[in-house]
Amino acid sequence: MNPTDTDNEDDITAGQDPSISHGADDGGLPATDISRPLGIARWVQFGYIALFALSFWLFDRITTVVWDQFAEPNAALISGIAAAIAGLITLVMWRSTSIRSFAQDSAGELAKVTWPNKKETWSNTVVVIVTSVIASLILFTFDAAWSAITDMIYQ
Q: I want to staple 20 with a disulfide (CB 3.0 to 4.6 A). Which of 8, 30, 67, 74 is the partner?
């Protein structure tokens, strides 16, 4: 069935995927379209790749430590075991619709964030540094005062 043959022209227009939202609340853009070179789906896929890499590294280290307790570790076998475990975890998480939906929703919300520019970041950094210096001077003053008071008491 061609999308243009539907009775409800408002929901599905020519050439648009009916599974992607094109409502007024998202500006008529597909849900996966953000104003960056990569769409939300690509960021989620990169997240799963990062999950695999981190899981592989973690399980490679864990398996090496455990195996080292019993015998000389075989690096190729350990890496294979770690890759299999990491791949299985990543696959299970990818196939889980609730986890994938959460990841896509999170990436969508992060795409809506207004990130500070270089000038705002610099000015905020200066504010944090100045505030930290002032707080450290106040704490130093109180510490020196209490130290002097306690020295007078104990002498």
A: 30
Write the CA distances from 12 to 1, 23, 104, 129, integer angstroms: 12, 10, 23, 54
Which residue segment(s) compose the domain that 74 sits in?
38-115
The tokens for 114 are 């207004």
Q: Are 34 and 111 in contact (CB under 8 A)?
A: yes
The 8-class DSSP code of residue 98 comes to H
CB of 78 within 8 A of CB of 60? yes
Strand segments (E) across 62-139 = none
Neighbours of 136 (CB within 10 A): 10
Specify the pTM: 0.51
pLDDT tens-digit map of 120-136: 999 999 999 999 999 99
* Residue-wise pLDDT tens digits, 61-74: 988 888 888 888 78
Residue-wise pLDDT for 113-122, tens only, equals 888 999 999 9
Q: How far apart are the first and last CA of the chain?
A: 95
Shared domain check, 74 and 46 = yes
Residues 145 and 76 in one domain: no
Which residue carries 């020196």 as its tokens?
A: 144
